[in-house]
């Protein structure tokens, strides 16, 4: 016996996001004068049962931004090529007697920095399911979004299906953020159309 459970943390109308997106992904603001799209109310799918425990999707504040730089080792704002940010979240849960499948979705935005240009950015996104100090799921998910123009920010929607062997508790959370690994460097070679300051 299955129950479909829908919840929205800072809920969004996913249909509206998908209609406005240029890539498969979700929308957040950047640090170069762009603004986040205004959140709307998420509509539950027809026949959804709004009950039970559907874990919240939360963003890791320390890893909600991801930048690439034109120079190795640089952290200078003027050297930024691409910047991606995560903003709003929503989720839907399919519950059974033996476990749960969570569809976690996060809205984000990709913009060009001062050294930016049209192109595709590959972003490593870390998805964890935590219950207190216990980590139930820990996955690194590759994701990409494309800028058609350095002057045209793009929204994206990241979506991930997560399977749990047991039903979650009231303290279970899905934590999403960019994986902050080695320094990211993007060459501007063969890109003559940089973002104008």
TrEMBL record:
Q: Which residues form the signal peptide?
A: 1-26
Q: Which domain of life is it from?
A: Bacteria
Record key words, sorted: Signal
Which PROSITE patterns does the entry link to? PROKAR_LIPOPROTEIN
Query: What is the designated name of this protein?
Result: Lipoprotein
Native organism: Allorhizobium terrae
Classification of source organism: Bacteria, Pseudomonadati, Pseudomonadota, Alphaproteobacteria, Hyphomicrobiales
């Amino acid at each position: 016996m299955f129950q479909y459970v829908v919840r929205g943390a800072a809920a969004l109308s996913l249909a509206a996001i998908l209609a406005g997106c240029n890539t498969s992904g979700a929308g957040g603001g950047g640090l170069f004068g762009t603004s986040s799209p205004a959140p709307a109310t998420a509509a539950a799918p027809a026949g959804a049962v709004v009950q039970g425990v559907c874990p919240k999707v939360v963003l890791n504040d320390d890893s909600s931004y991801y930048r690439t730089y034109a120079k190795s080792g640089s952290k200078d704002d003027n050297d930024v090529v691409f910047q991606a940010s995560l903003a709003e979240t929503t989720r839907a849960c399919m519950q059974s007697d033996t476990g749960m499948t969570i569809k976690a979705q996060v809205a984000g935005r990709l913009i060009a920095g001062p050294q930016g240009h049209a192109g595709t950015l590959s972003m490593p996104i870390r998805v964890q399911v935590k219950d207190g100090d216990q980590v139930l799921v820990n996955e690194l998910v590759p994701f990409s979004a494309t800028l058609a123009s350095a002057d045209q920010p793009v929204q994206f929607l990241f979506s991930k299906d997560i399977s749990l062997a047991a039903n979650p508790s009231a303290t279970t959370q899905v934590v999403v953020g960019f994986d902050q690994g080695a320094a990211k460097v993007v060459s501007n070679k063969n890109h003559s159309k940089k973002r104008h300051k």
